[in-house]
Every structure is written in C-alpha cells, then in structure tokens.
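Lab notebook page, bench 4
Experiment: in silico fold of construct C2
Operator: M.H.
Input chain length: 478 residues
Purpose: comparison with the prior construct
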Amino acid sequence: MTIYSNLRELLDSIKDGVSISDGTLNITDQELFRGRLIDELALNASINEDKAVTQACQWIIWEAAREFDIFPSSIQEFYEARGRDEFEGITVPAINIRGLTYYVAQAIIKTAQKNQSKSFIFEIAKSEIGYTFQPPAEYASQCLAAAIKTGYVGPIFIQGDHFQVNAKKYRESPESEINGLKKLISEAIESGFYNIDIDSSTLVDLSKPTIEEQQKDNYTVAAQLTAYIRQIEPQGITVSVGGEIGEVGGKNSTPEELIAFMEGYRKSLRQLDSDLQGISKISVQTGTEHGGVVLPDGSIAKVKLDFNTLQTLSKMAREKYGLAGAVQHGASTLPEEAFHRFPETETAEVHLATGFQNIIYESKALPQELRTRIYDWLKANCASEWKEGQTEEQFIYKTRKKGFGPFKKEFWMLPAEIKEAISQELEAQLDFLFKKLNAHNTALLIEKYINMQPVPKKIPQDLVALTGASVKKCSCCH
C-alpha cells in the first residue's frame, strides 16, 4: 500500500476510480475502489503525516460511503421502539476498537453479515481517543472504510463512549471542564458520531446525605450536555444520548439511584427547554471493572455480576421512563457462560473492549519482536503507573492498551497474512458474542426503525484548490 507524499499524488492514485467535480465525489469504478483504493485511503486517513492528505482521505471515504449506501446513523429510533416494548431479548454489542481499527472493524462487519445483523455499535471512549491516537474523524473514517471494503449496506452506528467529566477539574473550574467536553462532542458529531454516552457519574458524591443530593451534579451536567447535543445535531438526526448513574468499578447501582437521577435529569432538561429529547439508555454498575481484575499471573479473576440488579434496573428504565434499558460496561472479560444472561435480563447494550485487545496482543500470529518492543516501551514510558506490589504481568496487562497509539504505524504495516490471522481469531469470538447476545437476525428490525439521513461533509479547502471545486454549505448547518 502507498503512503501518499502529497495531495497531488493522492488524486493521481485514485483518478481511475473516483471523480471530484464542484465539491461532489462520484465513484467511477466501484470494483477498483473497493478492491484497492479503499485500503490506501484508509491507511492514509490514519497515519499520513500530511494533514491535508489525511483530511482529504477522510472526506473521500465519507462521501464514498454514501455512494455505497452506507450512512453514519443514530440508533435512537431502535432504542425508542425497545422502550415501547415493540421487541425484546436483544442486547446490542458496542465494541471499542483500540488498534488495527480498519481490520478489526472489518472482522466485526463480516461477523454481522454472517449473522444477518445490523445491531452493533463501533465506539471509542474519550480516554481511548487520547492514548490510541485516534481522533473522531479518523476513527469514523476507519469504520466507514471497513463497511465499504466488506460490501456492507445500511446504517453504521458510531458512538462516543465515556465522554467523561473529570471530577477534579470540574471542582476547580466547572465551566472550563464542560466547555472541553462540548468541544469534544462537537468534533465527534461533526465526524459522524451520532451516538454519545455522557459520563458525569464521576460527579456522584456518596458523602451527601440523600440520594438526590448525591446524584445532583451528575444529572445536572448530563442535562446540560444533552441540551448542547440537541443544539448541534444534524438536521433530521436525533443523536442517541446515554447517561450513567454509577461509575464502573464502584459500588453497585440501586433503583433509588436510577429514580433520583432520572427525575432530576428530566426536571433539569425541562428547565432548559421543555421540548428536548432526553437520553435513550442508562449505564449502571453491577460488579464489573474495565479490563477486569488482574491476578498476579496476568490472568483475570472471575467476577460475580449482579444480574438481578441489571434486570431490575433495565425493567424500571423501560417501564417508568421509556428507555431501551440498562447498559453494562466492562463486559468483554467476563466468563463465556455469562453472556447469554444479558438478553435474558433485557440488557439494552453491553460494552466490549479489553477482550478484543487481548486477542490481538496474545495472538500467535503477532510477531514476538513487535510485542516485545511494545512491552519494553510501556516499561520505559508508563513506569509511573506501575503500582507497588504489582507483578510485571499485572502491569503489562493494565497498560498495554497504551501501546496501540505509539505503534500504530507498525500495526498498520504488519503483513497481510498476519492481519488476516488475527482477524479470523477476532471473528470467532465475535460470532460467539453475536449469538449469545441475541444480536443476530436483526437486520430487518434495524431497517424497520432506523432513519438513514445522508449528511454531506464540506470538502477540505486544500482539496478545493486542486479540484477547482466550490465550497458548498453542508446540510447539517443550521
């Protein structure tokens, strides 16, 4: 694959499969585009050091996706239907991709196609955007490129996971912290993230005397950020927003906390604007921890998940507030026998991350030399995170997520047969999860409810100069 040295080389490389005229892109050779060009565009959208080339590739992928009937979408209407009990027993997998994103996304889509499913979400957390070196525009481009490559047609759900309030920074300067989140939300929505999980659960203060007081800062900030999302979402799209009542890794959530959050949140939202659409789901804590609890030998301790609480909170969220149900974070490292319980307890969504990261790092196909270099880098650059009493195995397990960013190019440049071998391992686990979560055979259901709204993206200025295009105002501008 070619790393383009400049915009002119990019345009020369794609000219046999793409035409750009007056700010509009047309695919002139779909076979060539899907066969070779999309690989090169995805590569350059990710690791090219020339910002003009990166932005051009991301724009081309966005516009090409529409040509292939692929649309970044909100899962809002599907979740609203679940809240009305129009279907049941489906848990949507939301998968965080930290590395090899273009290839992992293909593995997810291939598995979904095999299972006749369209109920799956690509997501990335605020923290992951930082340490994996994947800003929203890049992440979205990789997901859309993977959909093009695999021949997928339909909605693609891209989600901002844990768009989290830093409690310490909020206490020091609430306005500054909220403005920072608004900036991230704006960047994400502009990039096609039409699903946003607000995590202000970090502001829950269990030292306060009443549950309502404990949740007050949480629901107030959640309402404030929801209102902001409604101001900037594209015309014709209702961004699916999630809230959170208990921080993952903390104490288990209760029905009383759910009620306190929802009543306060709804009241706060009405005070801002009586017509605003609220959240579609609620994240709760039922005993998991992100990444799992690591034992000294690097293995994962078995976690006792409170499925009764999960079921109770999901039912209450639907029946009392019309939400899709509860969301379970930190699920990918749970034992395999746990996953069938999620649809049984009517869990709306589960978030899966570390388990797929583990498959990549522990794959026999991954060169030992690369693995060693990454682990040596972690020991040199993340030494401050090595807690007293931790074994090396525990330290590596907890920090290796931070190896994907610095070694992004090395992962990209792995031989095709290695990436294919890793992808096959991922597909096997994904197939298991789609079936256990009852997320298979959902394509017709998604098509019934989801509104696929095309949102043109403004052509980058540098590309305008070379193609002679005029800059048009995109339809998402109000």
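Observations: The chain has two domains: 7-69+457-467, 75-362+429-449. The chain has 20 helices and eleven strands.
Next step: discuss at group meeting.
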